[in-house]
UniProtKB/TrEMBL annotation, chain A:
Name by which UniProt lists this protein: Propionyl-CoA carboxylase alpha chain, mitochondrial
Self-association and partners: The holoenzyme is a dodecamer composed of 6 PCCA/alpha subunits and 6 PCCB/beta subunits. Interacts (via the biotin carboxylation domain) with SIRT4. Interacts with SIRT3 and SIRT5.
Annotated compartments: Mitochondrion matrix
Cofactor(s) listed: biotin
Lineage, highest ranks first: Eukaryota, Metazoa, Chordata, Craniata, Vertebrata
Domain Lipoyl-binding residues, every copy: 619-698
InterPro entries: ATP-grasp (IPR011761), ATP_grasp_subdomain_1 (IPR013815), BC-like_N (IPR005481), Biotin_BS (IPR001882), Biotin_carboxylase_complex (IPR050856), Biotin_carboxylation_dom (IPR011764), Biotin_COase_C (IPR005482), Biotin_lipoyl (IPR000089)
UniProtKB/TrEMBL annotation, chain B:
Membership in a protein family: Belongs to the AccD/PCCB family.
Enzyme class (EC, first level): ligase
Source organism (scientific name): Sinocyclocheilus rhinocerous
GO aspect biological process, one term: fatty acid catabolic process
Protein name: Propionyl-CoA carboxylase beta chain, mitochondrial
Residues of the CoA carboxyltransferase C-terminal domain: 294-533
Recorded GO MF terms: propionyl-CoA carboxylase activity
Length: 698, 539
């Protein structure tokens, strides 16, 4: 029945049979590298397998020893183990992958995201074996994979480019010289780079030297290539990219734009398609330049041309990504095209089936990148843990979640912390954003810290809603760092009322004993409760009365009506507050009255006590918290790259103490005060957990 | 944690309480007014204990008064007090003077309700002679204990006492012994819980030690046989109260206390929560409360929790939290002998005792401390009709001179004995390793396990492959090959399954569903051990 279905599907789409499926297996799916984002990659692989299944193509997943139970291995038709856990011995081991191809008779390879997906050597070896590489050919990867070369090609193809130095920068001093010529600010970036790694902005000579040093280190560790280039830094730009699709017959299309300006540390957080900023003329101009670049390198397959767009709608070529990008689903949503299917068709040598005039913009799509990150630290430092509970909001309409994890998955320091790509779609932008709010509220992630609080705040922020964004959005909107949702007085009352009602519901249930009882239970009959609720150091006296599942909570003379099912086992807490429907999540409920609720994305800690307990609390001894200024703890899990101090050293406030690397990002840890180093608890090469003691000052 | 409420609150509440008691008293409308007046006076005196100054001092120490504690522990208006008029009978050292008599003496006793269920309580009053134990004090405690046993309801003691009433001499010692005897008589009849909320020193410590559970309050409670001064004079050791007998010491080093809480309020609220897990007596089944967690809920995370490398650790608590109702697990002794996890949870609303080896700590091996911890918990469950669910991932007993000299043989035997003797429903899940004698010990089929499951990752064998091969093929070549063969043969659940030593090999994600179903069936289990005066557990 599967072949019938796939046949029908292909008929409706192309009227042509894509015939990989005749053989034992068709497409081999590789999961590559820890350099980028394995979780993200798994989610793409699953995404590709879904399309292959629709097309009637059998798939093979390759995996390392430790990933044999990963999701992509389960959903593929076949699986081949290509080696032990270290990626250099498995996912990056070309020989093992080539063997897997021979062993399974695969006719094509989809490389996933990441390192090998843009590796010229790999593409060459495949070509030599007569295996189809689903993606652009070696020449295009080579040309576009190198930032210096790609810029030259772009210039030749009459694509707008950023003023800068079109060559490799030899050392820090040359960097300073070139920067002076171009004029500050400048951007120093890895020639082989991508994804914001090995990228630094410098505003003066000193920063240029330091940036050069950091970027070359990062570039070397991330890409094995420390060549850097320098160009003019366009301040306050938007990041808008054009999806292109080109076949092997010289035809190319642009599939409209994706707005990816909301970023932190040069990595995208929220994307949408289309952009609120582009008018049809600019869109067409960008699209046409993107297509002419694709033609210039004889590009075939799906690709993305990234542009920086300044406030006057001038746009500059940034780079071309020769792979299917994380944010591709939003383009699929508004154009109705399955990009993976198109890539497979193109790889097989078919002509494009659409004309430029066939490409629509239907509705609006928004994508949130859900990360295992603590958004309260620099808009997201990696966190680790085991997903003890995980529930995607898939029962909501027009919500798509691409993920590669499941309940029970471990998020470790070795992987990029992406949990999923959450996409919502609506007829209008407003509708898509409202869906995103609901989807984020209904997304259950427990066991790791995640960035839903930040995502939920971004999409409702007035500046975002009005479309007034740039790549500086986060630092501009939250100059002192992200602090979570700021409650209005009304929201505060809603939150307090919900906590109080939940507390009473739990109290009442704890009196319900079932079965025959030798000694009767005498429950404390009450319809009225006097409670004291603490939230952010503020104390509120609440009166609660109940009728069935409906609670009336009186706070400071205002009445709040809360009703719900009060299912104390469910992770989600759907309730109606004053007639409004809301979904909260109960994260914690202890015997001592502590209740944590996720409300409007942010988690709030409350404490509910009876008036009696609250009034006696004043006698409880205060526990003295640890003095943190003399203690340096790791803000995230990672590995120690370098320790710059030893016991007895004098350090100045702000001086670098050590460097922690997590997810291939180097973070400099500095002293919080001027003091003498008392003790050092880590050394280069150590693996540290979040909150681990690194250095003690006197 | 401070609440900015008005300071007058305490006084007002006390007044309110006193007036309520008086109202009740008036209902009996005694005709002799002078007697009526005396009753009211005495009651009022009883309610203020050692007086406002001492109450203020108690508060200053970060502690609540005996009555405030009972108010928090029990349901509102449920406390019924006994022996409010009892006074001490000492006439030496000026104790007979009126100002040295306090109605009720240094303890408040009675019964009340926790979430509607009956409980007997005593709460020592530190404001009266430092809560010291007089003959009268002991007599009051004994009275409620006797009644608790007759009625079949638990006893909770809130300990806050400086020790013996020295002025009474042997009378006080007799009082302790009277209480000890009742602790022993009540053991296994009704649950007994001690919450140490202040000092508890000398002979007094043996009452908590005899009860089923001892909880402590951090920073304000101490338990020791002799205090730091005596220690200094006898052994010349310098030690603080906190180091010698504080909550941290007893919950991590000595294993005397089962858990510690932040402060009085935290402790009492947690005690209410804990009480809900317990049956009232050995005549009652394990309580069943209303449950919102579906009993057939699948737990997909469990399918991947056991790492593929058998040397890699994982957290047994993740399994426990995933399986039990609402991820709610009241762990007993969470910081002592952490290589075994024990505690209470619910399955479809019914209280169960959970025992699990903890691979995260010392590979989950059994040693002296973990055996004793496990054994005592298993015996409590068995005494009070609480089904036991055991999760097994045990590489064996910990080797070494420290363990052998410490008597691992007789201590390990305790856990074996406890599991073997238990007649409550016993369900066992082998998640990974079940090696050697430790396999037998951990509620195996051979010790009358009712339902024994293995996960596909289970390895039931005499020992790990490497050790086994070194013995079987000593001096032979091809050890690696032999090891692979051993792994192939034994590092899987089949050898046990083909012999019926496990009843089924189950998908981990279905474990909750299976256990809930089994517990329903086993609810009517009846099993008795041969008649004996009492058994002789290897103490």
């Amino acid at each position: 029945s599967q072949s019938v279905r796939s046949f029908l599907l292909i008929q409706t789409v192309s009227h042509k049979h894509v015939c990989f499926s005749k053989q034992r297996c068709g497409v081999i799916i590789c999961r590559y590298s820890t350099v980028y984002d394995p979780n993200e990659k798994v989610s793409l692989i699953i995404r590709v397998i879904k399309t292959c299944k629709k097309m009637g193509i059998k798939t093979v997943a390759v995996h390392s020893d430790v990933d044999s139970s990963a999701v992509h291995v389960k959903v593929a038709d076949e699986a081949v183990c290509v080696g032990p856990a270290p990626t250099s011995k498995s996912y990056l081991n070309m020989d093992a992958i080539m063997n897997a191809i021979k062993q399974t008779g695969a006719q094509a390879v989809h490389p996933g995201y990441g390192f090998l997906s843009e590796n010229k050597e790999f593409a060459k070896r495949l070509a030599a074996e007569g295996v189809t590489f689903i993606g652009p050919d070696t020449h295009a990867i080579q040309a576009m994979g190198d930032k210096i070369e790609s810029k030259l090609i772009a210039k030749a193809a009459k694509v707008n480019t950023i003023p800068g130095f079109d060559g490799v920068v030899k050392d820090a001093e040359e960097a300073v010289k070139i920067a002076g010529e171009i004029g500050y600010p400048v951007m120093i970036k890895a020639s082989a780079g991508g994804g914001g790694k090995g990228m630094r902005i410098a505003w003066n000579d000193e920063e240029t030297r330091e940036g050069f040093r950091f970027s070359s280190q990062e570039a070397l560790s991330s890409f094995g290539d420390d060549r850097l280039l320098i160009e003019k830094f366009i301040d306050n730009p938007r990041h808008i990219e054009i999806q292109v699709l080109a076949d092997k017959h010289g035809d190319a299309l642009w599939l409209n734009e994706r707005e990816c300006s909301i970023q932190r540390r040069n990595q995208k957080v929220v994307e949408e398609a289309p952009s609120t900023f582009l008018d049809p003329d600019t869109r067409r101009a960008m699209g046409e330049q993107a297509v002419s670049l694709a033609n210039a390198v004889k590009y075939s397959s799906a690709g993305t041309v990234e542009f920086l767009v300044d406030s006057k709608k001038n746009f500059y070529f940034l780079e071309m990504n020769t792979r299917l990008q994380v944010e591709h689903p939003i383009t699929e949503c508004i154009t109705g095209l399955d990009l993976v299917q198109q890539m497979i068709r193109i790889a097989k040598g078919y002509k494009l089936q659409h004309k430029q005039s066939d490409i629509p913009i239907n509705g609006w799509a928004v994508e949130s990148r859900v990360y295992a990150e603590d958004p309260y630290k620099s808009f997201g430092l990696p966190s680790i843990g085991r997903l003890s509970q995980y529930q995607e909001p898939l029962d909501l309409p027009n919500v798509r979640v691409d993920s590669g994890i499941q309940e029970g998955s471990d998020i470790s320091i070795y992987y990029d912390p992406m949990i999923s790509k959450l996409v919502t779609y609506g007829k209008t932008r407003e509708e898509a954003l409202k869906k995103m709010e609901d989807a984020l509220d209904n997304y259950v992630i427990r066991g790791v810290t995640h960035n839903i609080p930040l995502l939920r705040e971004i999409i409702v922020h007035p500046r975002f809603v009005s479309g007034d964004i740039s790549t500086k959005f986060l630092p501009e909107v939250y100059p002192d760092g992200f602090k979570g949702h700021m409650l209005t007085a009304g929201e505060r009352r809603e939150l307090l009322a919900t906590a109080a009602a939940l507390y009473v519901a739990a109290q009442l249930r704890s009196q319900k004993f079932l079965g025959d009882l030798r000694v009767s239970v005498v429950p404390a009959e009450s319809r009225q409760w006097e409670l004291c609720v603490e939230l952010d150091k503020g104390v509120h006296m609440l009166g609660v009365s109940r009728s069935g599942n409906n609670y009336t909570v009186e706070i400071d003379g205002e009445k709040v009506e809360v009703s719900g099912e009060w299912n104390l086992a469910s992770a989600l807490l759907p309730i109606t507050i004053n007639g409004k429907h809301r979904t909260l999540q109960c994260l914690l409920r202890t015997a001592a009255g502590e209740i944590s609720l996720q409300y409007l994305g942010t988690s709030f800690k409350l404490r509910v006590l009876s008036n009696l307990a609250a009034s006696l609390s004043k006698h409880m001894p205060e526990k003295v918290p640890e003095d943190t200024s003399s203690i340096l703890r790791s803000p995230m899990p990672g590995s120690v790259v370098a320790v710059s101090v030893k016991p007895g050293d004098n350090v100045a406030e702000g001086q670098e103490i050590c460097v922690i690397e997590a997810m291939k990002m180097q973070n400099s840890m500095t002293a919080a005060k001027t003091a003498k180093v008392k003790s050092v608890h880590c050394k280069a090469g150590d693996t540290v957990g979040e909150g681990d003691l690194l250095v003690e000052l006197e | 944690y401070r609440w900015p409420l008005d300071e007058a609150g305490d006084g007002q509440r006390l007044e309110h309480l006193a007036s309520k008691v008086l109202q009740n008293a008036r209902c009996y409308s005694v005709s002799h007014l002078s007697v009526q007046e005396r009753i009211e006076k005495k009651r009022k005196a009883a309610l203020t204990g050692g007086g406002q100054l001492r109450i203020a001092a108690q508060h200053k120490r970060g502690k609540l008064t005996a009555r405030e504690r009972l108010e928090l522990l029990l349901d509102p208006d449920s406390f019924v007090e006994y022996d409010m008029f009892v006074e001490h009978r000492c006439s030496d050292f000026g104790m007979e003077a009126d100002h040295n008599k306090y109605p009720g003496d240094s303890v408040v006793t009675g019964q009340g309700r926790i979430n509607g269920r009956l409980v007997y309580v005593f709460s020592q009053d530190f404001t009266v002679f430092g809560g010291s134990l007089s003959g009268a004090h002991a007599q009051k405690v004994c009275k409620i204990m006797d009644q608790a046993m007759m009625v079949g309801a638990p006893v909770i003691g809130l300990n806050d006492s400086g020790g013996a009433r020295i002025q009474e001499g042997v009378e006080s010692l007799a009082g302790y012994a009277d209480i000890f005897l009742r602790n022993v008589m009540a053991s296994g009849v009704v649950p007994q819980i001690s919450l140490i909320m202040g000092p508890c020193a000398g002979g007094a410590v043996y009452s908590p030690a005899l009860t089923d559970f001892t909880f402590m309050v951090k920073d304000t409670s101490y338990l020791f046989i002799t205090g730091p001064d005596v220690v200094k004079s006898v052994t010349n050791e310098d030690v603080t109260q906190e180091e010698l007998g504080g909550a941290k010491t007893h919950t991590t080093v000595s294993g005397v206390a089962h858990r510690a809480f932040e402060n009085d309020i935290d402790a009492l609220l947690n005690l209410r929560d804990f009480f809900n897990f317990l049956p009232l007596s050995n005549k009652d089944p394990a309580p069943v409360t209303e449950c919102h967690d579906p009993r057939d809920r699948l737990v997909p995370g469990l399918d991947t929790i056991v790492p593929l490398e058998s040397t890699k650790a994982y957290d047994m608590l993740d399994i426990v939290h995933g399986i039990v109702d609402e991820r709610e697990f009241f762990e007993i002794m969470p910081n002592y002998a952490k290589n075994i996890v024990v505690g209470f949870a619910r399955m479809n609303g019914r209280t169960v005792g959970i025992v699990g080896n903890q691979p995260k700590v010392a590979s989950g091996c059994l040693d002296i401390n973990s055996s004793v911890k496990g054994a005592r918990f298993v015996r409590f469950c068995d005494a009070f009709n609480i089904p036991i669910i055991t999760f097994v991932d045990v590489p064996g007993f910990l080797p070494g001179t420290a363990q052998e000299y410490g008597g691992i043989i007789r201590h390990g035997a305790k856990l074996l004995y406890a599991f073997a003797e238990a007649t409550v429903p016993k369900i066992t899940v082998i998640t990974r390793k079940a090696y050697g004698g430790a396999y037998d010990v951990m509620s195996s089929k051979h010790l009358r396990g009712d339902v024994n499951y293995a996960w596909p990752s289970a390895e039931v064998a005499v020992m790990g492959a490497k050790g086994a091969v070194q013995i079987i093929f000593r001096g032979k070549e091809n050890q690696a090959e032999a090891e692979a063969e051993y792994v192939e043969k034994f590092a899987n659940p089949f050898p046990a399954a083909v012999r019926g030593f496990v009843d089924d090999i189950i998908q981990p994600s279905t474990t909750r569903k299976r256990i809930c179903r089994d517990l329903e069936v086993l609810a009517s289990k009846k099993q008795t051990n041969p008649w004996k005066k009492h058994a002789n557990i290897p103490l």
